[in-house]
C-alpha cells in the first residue's frame, strides 16, 4: 500500500528499459476550487539520469474538457497533458 497526498491522482515510476539510467518519477496533482471555473493540473517530474526535478502547471476552464452532456472529452484532456509533459521533460533536459 502506498499513501498518496490529497489531490494527487497519478504517481508513476518511469524505468529505463536498458537498465542503465536511474528511474524517473512523475506525479499528477489536480485542484479545482468550489464555484471556480478554472481547473489546475500540476505535473511534478524527476529525471533520475540527470538528478533534476521540475514542475509545471496548466490552468484551463473546466468547460474545455467537458461537453454539454457533462462527458469528459478525453482527447482534449490527453492532448494538453501530453503537451505540458513533453515541454517539462524537454525543460529538465535543458537544465543539464
Automatic annotation (TrEMBL):
One of its GO terms (molecular function) is peptidase activity. Keywords: Endoplasmic reticulum, Membrane, Transmembrane, Transmembrane helix. Its main location: endoplasmic reticulum. GO terms for cellular component: signal peptidase complex. The keyword Membrane applies. The keyword Kinase does not apply. GO terms for biological process: protein targeting to ER; signal peptide processing. It is a multi-pass membrane protein. It comes from the Eukaryota. It is found in: Endoplasmic reticulum membrane. It holds the Pfam family SPC25. Component of the signal peptidase complex (SPC) which catalyzes the cleavage of N-terminal signal sequences from nascent proteins as they are translocated into the lumen of the endoplasmic reticulum. Enhances the enzymatic activity of SPC and facilitates the interactions between different components of the translocation site. Belongs to the SPCS2 family. This is Signal peptidase complex subunit 2. It comes from Didymodactylos carnosus.
Amino acid at each position: 500500500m502506498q499513501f498518496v497526498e490529497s489531490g494527487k491522482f497519478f504517481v508513476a515510476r518511469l524505468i529505463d528499459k536498458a537498465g542503465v539510467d536511474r528511474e524517473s518519477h512523475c506525479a499528477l496533482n489536480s485542484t479545482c476550487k468550489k464555484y471556480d471555473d478554472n481547473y489546475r493540473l500540476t505535473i511534478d517530474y524527476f529525471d533520475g539520469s540527470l538528478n533534476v526535478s521540475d514542475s509545471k502547471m496548466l490552468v484551463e476552464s473546466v468547460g474545455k474538457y467537458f461537453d454539454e452532456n457533462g462527458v469528459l472529452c478525453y482527447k482534449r484532456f490527453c492532448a494538453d497533458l501530453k503537451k505540458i509533459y513533453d515541454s517539462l521533460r524537454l525543460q529538465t533536459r535543458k537544465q543539464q
